[in-house]
Design a protein that fits this description.
Helix content is 30%, strand content 26%. It is built from nine helices and 22 strands. The strands form five sheets. The chain has an eight-stranded antiparallel barrel with strand order 15-16-17-18-19-20-21-22. Strands 2-1-13-12-11-10 form a six-stranded antiparallel beta sheet, with helices on both faces. Helix 2 runs parallel beside helix 5, helix 2 packs across helix 6 and helix 2 runs antiparallel to helix 8. The protein is globular.
Length: 425
């Protein structure tokens, strides 16, 4: 097709205008993201790295806070931070590839790979992938999570724990199940989980800064984990994340985590993995373990994507996630500021009445304990704010204990983007 000089001029002008408007729009979104996060970081309420893209092009990438608060070493763009349960879709990618190679089937019973697993003949690989195996989420007390384990040793730990229900009858989110799945993939392929990650996940996406946790090895550029408290940064408990093999053991950079999301939607892991991981036109995954939290989200049409990695576990991560998503969708952030209530220890003097185990409708459990004069749920400290209600820094949430005839019957826990309930056992 030939264009006359006037038409060619108009065409070139239209292209230039479109380019300028697109660049201006991207710069505006980048500024909005920066305006959202910078005040949180300056107040030492956010620490980590954020990457955002539009139409496949990175429009924002910045590091905040400290990789090491003791030495005041700042986070950098290539700082490695744990991505927690974003490891799980990586394990699903490996499973999909091995299925394509006819090395494993979703219908296979667990006993095909672990013959002595209790009730393993009733558990299929598909049940484990769908969190319907009955295997518990956590299978050991927190103090044992600081020790190193092989994948085979983790399977032995899971064997010792009773199933939560008849396999296939219900759903229970299970990191323990994915630790078993990681070992199954090793047995089916004849390779280690580290090797499988490199071949099927990191390599195809060009993720050169990602690796599986090894507590005995020096991890260059690794950020220390922190938890937010009323006094600011405090050290998270020391953990050896080998107990989360296949479930939450990968450390990565924000750029690499973004590359993983793009690889999923671009089909670099195959159509089966893409179909399995994309829902309603979106790939989305998140993780929260100890002192690190992570999010990745990429639209299937590549219109936007982002990755957020934080080494300061607190509710500001949810504010950043919600705000970045809204900005990329062309909206104003709904929540821009922290909301930390005034603490009042006198409002709940008798803490013993709140202690005990609580169970959610999906079968998951939490336990409220008292340590050093305060209530805790695992590593989450609860701060008294009003009668029967407590604040937590991890999610900037409010946990309220609901009574029936004066007795505690349940907990309702609300935060940025979530509302959960557990019944007292």
């Amino acid at each position: 097709m030939k264009l006359g000089i006037p038409k060619l001029v108009h065409f070139v002008f239209a292209v230039l205008v479109t380019f300028v408007l697109t660049a201006a729009g991207q710069a505006s979104k980048a500024k909005q993201i920066d305006d959202l996060i910078t005040p949180l970081a300056k107040g030492e309420h956010f620490s980590g790295v954020v990457v955002a893209s539009e139409n496949g092009k990175v429009i924002y990438e910045k590091a905040f806070g400290f990789a090491n608060a003791d030495f005041r070493i700042p986070n950098a763009l290539n700082t490695r931070i744990g991505i927690a349960s974003i490891t799980k879709p990586m394990t699903i990618v490996i499973l999909s590839r091995l299925i394509e190679e006819n090395k494993i089937k979703l219908s296979d019973p667990l006993t095909k790979y672990v013959p002595d697993f209790p009730n393993g003949e009733k558990i299929t690989i598909e049940m484990i992938r769908q969190h319907r195996s009955g295997i518990l989420h956590r299978v050991m007390p927190p103090e044992m999570e600081s020790l190193p384990y092989t994948s085979a040793e983790m399977v032995d730990k899971v064997k010792q724990a009773k199933l939560a229900f008849e396999p296939g009858s219900r759903r229970l989110y299970s990191s323990g199940g994915f630790a078993v799945l990681a070992r199954v993939l090793e047995i089916a392929s004849g390779r280690t989980y580290v090797e499988l990650l490199q071949q099927y996940v990191f390599g195809p996406a060009g993720m050169k800064d990602s690796l599986d946790f090894n507590g005995e090895a020096i991890m260059e550029r690794r950020a220390q984990d922190y938890i937010l408290s009323e006094l600011g940064y405090r050290n998270a408990a020391l953990k050896d994340y080998s107990f989360l093999v296949g479930a939450g053991s990968v450390f990565s950079t924000a750029a690499d985590t973004h590359r993983f999301g793009m690889a999923v939607v671009d089909g670099k892991y195959g159509e089966a993995a893409k179909a399995s991981l994309i829902s309603e036109g979106l790939f989305s995954a998140s993780g929260s373990t100890n002192g690190h939290r992570a999010y990745v989200e990429v639209k299937a049409d590549r219109s936007y994507g982002y990755a957020i990695l934080s080494n300061l576990a607190c509710g500001s991560v949810d504010i950043v996630r919600a705000g970045v998503r809204e900005i990329m969708e062309g909206k104003e952030p709904t929540v821009k500021k922290l909301a930390v209530p005034k603490f009042d220890t006198s409002a709940n003097r008798d803490l013993d009445q709140f202690l005990g185990k609580y169970k959610a409708a999906d079968g998951s459990e939490i336990e409220i304990v008292k340590r050093n004069g305060s209530l805790h749920s695992a590593d989450i400290r609860l701060y008294s704010v009003k009668p029967d209600c407590f604040f937590d820094y991890r999610f900037f949430g409010e946990a309220c204990f609901i009574r029936d005839a004066g007795r505690i019957k349940e907990i309702k826990w609300k935060g940025v983007g979530f509302e959960l309930a557990w019944t007292k056992q």
